Amino acid sequence: MAEIKYSETLTDNLRGKAVVLNGGAQGIGAATVEILYNKGANVFFGDWNEERGRKLEQDLKAGASENGGTVSFRRVDVRSHEMQLALFDDAMRAHGRVDVAIQCAGISEPSGWFEPEDLNLETVRNEPTPVKDNIEINLTSVLLFARMALAYLRSDDGSSSGGSKTNEDFSKSIVLVSSIAGITEAPGLFAYSSAKHGVIGAMRSLRKFGPVKYGVRANAICPWATDTQLLSGVKEMWVREKMPMNTPADVARMIVQCAADGNINGAAVFVAGGRGFDTEEGIDRTLPQWMGEENAQVFLRGQELLGLGKNWAK
Ligand SMILES: NC(=O)c1ccc[n+]([C@@H]2O[C@H](COP(=O)([O-])OP(=O)(O)OC[C@H]3O[C@@H](n4cnc5c(N)ncnc54)[C@H](O)[C@@H]3O)[C@@H](O)[C@H]2O)c1
C-alpha cells in the first residue's frame, strides 16, 4: 500500500495561496484551517456554525501567522449554492484567483431508522426527511462545490503575487473529505455511507478529467476514527478497546499534503492512527485479481474508448 507522508518542507509551497474551505469551524476542518494559516496561506473558510467559525477566525488572527497567512470566515450552509459561491467570490475578490478548494463539511446520521423494531408497514409510510438532508450535505453539496471549484480554479488572472504562475512546484487542486465509510461497509450508516461512497465517485470522475480539462488535481481523504464530536457515540468503546485514533491534525496534515503535492492526483487517502495510505493505488494495481484478467484487459480498452466521457448523452 502506498503511504502518503506529510512533508513540512513541500507544504511550504502553500504560502501565499488562496484557499477556499467548507466545514472549517471545528474538528478536522478547523485543524486544516490552522495549518494552512500558519503555512502562510490566505484561507477563506465557511461553516454553518457561525459562533465557532468567528471564534476560530478571531483566535487565529490574535496569534498572527508566522508566514504572513490571512484568514477570513463566512457563514455558509453548504446546501445553499449562493452561499458556497459567496465564499469563492471572497477569495477571488481579494486575490484574483483560487488555488485550492477543500470540502470538509459533513454530518453523521441518526441511528435506528432501518432497524426492524422501528420499520414496519405503518412507519414506512412516513418519509424519513433526514435521509435527503444527509445526502444533500454529504454528497450533493460536495459535487456542486467541486464543480464550482473547477470554474474558479481555472480563472487565474495571474495578477496577484504568490500565485500559482510564480511557483512552478505547485498545481491547483480540489480535496474532498470522504470517509472509511466511503470505501468499506459501514453498518448502520445507510445515508452517510452511501453519500461518502458518492464522494469517492466524484473524485474518480474528476481525476483524469480535472488535470486534462482544467489543470486541476482531485483527491479524497478517507479518515478512520478521528477524535471529533462526530465520533462521540462510539468514542468511549473505541478508546477502551485501544483502537487506532487520529487527531484532527493528523487528518488535516493529509489534506494539506494532497493540496500541496503536485504528484498526488486521484488518491483516496485512508487515514488511520495518524498515517495516510492511498487505497486507490491498490485497487487499480489489483484490477486483474478482482475483476479477472480477461475482463480487466477489455475493461481498460473500454475506458480508453470512453476517454473523458463527453458523449454519454446523445
Ligand atoms: N471524525 C471522524 O471519525 C470522521 C471519520 C470519517 C470521516 N469524517 C469526515 O470528516 C469531515 C469533518 O468531520 P469532523 O469529524 O471534523 O466533524 P465535525 O462535526 O467536528 O466537523 C464538521 C463540520 O462541518 C460543519 N457542517 C456540517 N454541516 C454543514 C452545513 N450544512 N453547512 C456548513 N457546514 C456544515 C459543522 O458545523 C462542523 O464544523 C466530515 O466530512 C466527516 O464526515 C470524520
From TrEMBL:
Any single GO molecular-function term of the entry would be:
oxidoreductase activity, acting on the CH-OH group of donors, NAD or NADP as acceptor
Q: Does the keyword Oxidoreductase apply?
A: yes
**Keywords assigned by UniProt?**
Oxidoreductase
Q: Which domain of life is it from?
A: Eukaryota
The UniProt entry, under Pfam families, shows: adh_short
> Which is a Gene Ontology cellular component entry for this protein?
cytoplasm
Key word Mitochondrion present: no
Family the entry assigns: Belongs to the short-chain dehydrogenases/reductases (SDR) family.
What is the recorded name of this protein?
Uncharacterized protein
> Source species, please?
Corynascus novoguineensis
